[in-house]
């Protein structure tokens, strides 16, 4: 890589000042700075893309190893299942009786009938009673029945003497 020290940078700045001139030097320096910034961002993007590709390859390898382990476990379970079925069929080979069919599977002796349909009891009085008394009092719901005479006596304006 380039080894730029302070002395070399000062020499480059002096040559640029002479060649370009003091009027155009700030604009050229700004342009060079933006180009260097774009180059650095491009290099950073390329590095990030390479790192993502490497991570993706590692993930693919890990996925393949997990799938292979899953296949091995599945094969082991299948072989265990077939071994168990063989030993079960050998153990139950002589049990063909009234409770077993010809292939060795047990048959139920009695099957219960399906349950009868019962209509659910919906008691609207019970639902009305579920409302708290304080809520009824706040909302003005009548809790007790009054006769017409009692209602008139209750709401009759009082005579002032």
Automatic annotation (TrEMBL):
InterPro entries registered for this protein in UniProt: TatA/B/E (IPR003369), TatB (IPR018448)
Sequence segments annotated as region (Disordered): 88-161
Location relative to the cell: Cell membrane; Membrane
Pfam families: TatA_B_E
GO cellular component: TAT protein transport complex
Self-association state and partner proteins as the record states: The Tat system comprises two distinct complexes: a TatABC complex, containing multiple copies of TatA, TatB and TatC subunits, and a separate TatA complex, containing only TatA subunits. Substrates initially bind to the TatABC complex, which probably triggers association of the separate TatA complex to form the active translocon.
Name of the protein in its database record: Sec-independent protein translocase protein TatB
Source organism per UniProt: Ottowia testudinis
């Amino acid at each position: 890589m380039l080894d730029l020290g302070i002395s070399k940078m000062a020499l480059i700045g002096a040559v640029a000042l002479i060649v370009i001139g003091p009027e155009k030097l700030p604009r050229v320096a700004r342009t060079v700075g933006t180009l260097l910034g774009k180059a650095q961002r491009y290099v950073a993007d390329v590095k990030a893309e390479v790192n993502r590709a490497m991570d993706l390859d590692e993930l693919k390898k890990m996925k393949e190893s997990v799938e292979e382990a899953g296949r091995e476990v599945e094969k082991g379970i299948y072989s265990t299942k077939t071994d168990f079925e063989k030993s079960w069929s050998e153990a139950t080979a002589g049990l063909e009786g009234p409770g077993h069919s010809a292939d060795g599977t047990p048959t139920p002796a009695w099957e219960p009938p399906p349950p009868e349909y019962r209509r659910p009891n919906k008691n609207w009085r019970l639902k009305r009673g579920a409302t708290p008394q304080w809520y009824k009092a706040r909302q003005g719901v009548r809790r007790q029945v009054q006769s017409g005479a009692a209602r008139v006596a209750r709401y009759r304006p009082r005579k002032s003497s």
